[in-house]
């Protein structure tokens, strides 16, 4: 991920100081191409006074530990999604960052994309009328068909791995959720890696969630079964006057609006969109915010709230689908575009 998706989109004021990896050659290849040095360990990074921000791009179940160690060392942290696998863990990281006087940022920051911010502006301006309903579809394919080590993805499950994208986009647009419920199951329990190893799926690889954001009810579908070729994708938001459709991921995906009982038509972006996905946008923005002394947008509080939503859905899976309250909140995110 670091070499393919983050390093190519680093932008000033961010400079790559270096990297470490459990596989030394991966870190070596990254710094050979993008600069910096190969560190032998996280401890060596934390001892380097020239490192201001630690970026955590490790497997899901290691995020909390690495972020906590880095915050305790007085480093700012930007963490890949999810921030933690429990709400208690995520909240404790937010509290620790406050105690140490450092910043905690977290992916996904795709809500900062031009398509997503265009949608948010239309909602803010009342173009859809009163919002009441939303749909979000995440059909993320079979991880073992392309990833050498798919097991950690299946251990976390699609809701934690990719459901966080639309949930974060929706939370940034609609504000904090207040309750959630869901159903999860395992569609395909037996899987096989690219090198022929068989493994068993133990976490639901399919889920349907209902989330209430104030007066807006959202249905979210997530799975590690249906491929990217499917036609059910993106986010739809439906209001009394009109409906909107766009991507929860791609920054240059068309934003389309349809009046009630009318056809969809594209609208102009708020700014020239990035062609694809700029995954380091949240990191770049946080670094600029630190220098400017203002709040950063991809905040730990927002990420922790999304973790609580996911945990509430998981609790609902185990209690027969009952509603589970979501108690946390987060500061409103200032839009980057007027």
Helix content: 25-40%
Low-confidence spans: none
Number of strands: 16
Using only CA atoms, what is the Rg?
20 Å
Query: How many DSSP helices?
Result: 11
Silhouette = globular
Can you offer a commentary on this structure?
This protein is of the alpha/beta class and 338 residues long. Helices cover 32% and strands 21% of the residues. It contains 11 helices and 16 strands. Strands 15-14-13-12-6-11-10-7-16 form a 9-stranded mixed sheet, covered by helices on one side. It has a 3-stranded parallel sheet with strand order 3-4-5, sandwiched between helices. Strand 10 and strand 11 form a beta hairpin. Helix 4 (63-72) packs parallel to helix 5 (87-100), helix 5 packs antiparallel against helix 11 and helix 9 (164-174) packs across helix 11 (300-318). The longest helix is centred in the C-terminal third of the chain and has 19 residues, at 300-318. It is globular, with a radius of gyration of 20 Å. The two termini are 32 Å apart.
Q: Helix and strand layout, with pairings?
A:
Elements: H1 2-6, E1 18-19, H2 24-34, E2 37-38, H3 42-46, E3 53-56, H4 63-72, E4 76-79, H5 87-100, E5 104-106, H6 114-124, E6 131-139, H7 151-156, H8 158-161, H9 164-174, E7 179-185, E8 190-192, E9 198-200, E10 206-213, E11 216-223, E12 234-239, E13 242-246, E14 256-259, E15 265-266, H10 281-292, H11 300-318, E16 324-325
Parallel strand pairs: 1-2, 3-4, 4-5, 6-11
Antiparallel strand pairs: 6-12, 7-10, 7-16, 8-9, 10-11, 12-13, 13-14, 14-15
């Amino acid at each position: 991920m670091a070499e393919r998706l983050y390093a190519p989109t680093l932008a000033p004021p961010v400079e790559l100081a270096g990297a470490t990896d459990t596989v030394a050659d991966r870190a070596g290849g990254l710094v050979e191409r993008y600069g910096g040095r190969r560190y032998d360990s996280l401890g060596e990074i934390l001892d380097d006074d020239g490192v201001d921000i630690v970026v955590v791009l490790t497997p899901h179940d290691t995020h909390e530990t690495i972020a906590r160690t880095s915050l305790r060392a007085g480093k700012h942290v930007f963490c890949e999604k999810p921030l933690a696998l429990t709400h208690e863990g995520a909240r404790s990281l937010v509290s620790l960052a406050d105690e140490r006087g450092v910043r905690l940022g977290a992916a996904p920051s795709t809500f900062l994309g031009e398509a997503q911010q265009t949608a948010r502006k239309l909602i803010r301006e009342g173009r859809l009328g009163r919002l009441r309903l939303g749909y979000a579809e995440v059909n993320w394919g079979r991880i073992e068909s392309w990833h050498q080590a798919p097991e950690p993805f299946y251990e976390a499950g699609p809701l934690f791995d990719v459901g966080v994208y639309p949930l974060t986009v929706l939370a940034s647009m609609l504000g904090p959720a207040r309750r959630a419920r869901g159903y999860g199951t395992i569609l395909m329990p037996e899987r096989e890696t690219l090198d022929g190893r068989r493994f068993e799926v133990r976490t639901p690889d399919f889920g349907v969630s209902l989330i209430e954001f104030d007066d807006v009810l959202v249905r979210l579908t997530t799975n590690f079964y249906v491929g990217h070729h499917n036609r059910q994708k993106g986010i739809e938001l439906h209001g009394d006057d009109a409906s909107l459709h766009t991507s929860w991921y791609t920054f240059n995906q068309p934003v389309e609006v349809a009046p009630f009982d009318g056809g969809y038509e594209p609208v102009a972006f708020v700014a020239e969109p990035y062609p694809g996905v700029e995954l380091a946008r949240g990191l770049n923005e946080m670094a600029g915010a630190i220098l400017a002394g203002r709040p950063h947008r991809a905040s730990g509080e927002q990420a922790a709230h999304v973790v609580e939503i996911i945990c509430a859905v998981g609790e609902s899976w185990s209690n027969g689908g009952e509603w589970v309250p979501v108690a946390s909140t987060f500061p409103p995110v200032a839009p980057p575009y007027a």
